[in-house]
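Table S2 (text version). Query chain:
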Amino acid sequence: MRDAGGYVMGQDEESSDVYGMNRVAFREGNVDHQFHLNDASVAIRQQVKRLWAPKKLLV
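Corresponding structure-token output:
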């Protein structure tokens, strides 16, 4: 995903029932941001804003 310009988010160990695939991705450095399941909507919303928020022009 990163090679194609993607940003990888993953659920943290504390809030995961099974932390298998997420653990491997995180340990191998393939996760840009980990979040607690309760914070998933905030984490996703923040990333969407970073990607698609209108850019302010400097004058």
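Notes on Table S2: Residues 2-52 form one domain. The chain has two helices and two strands.
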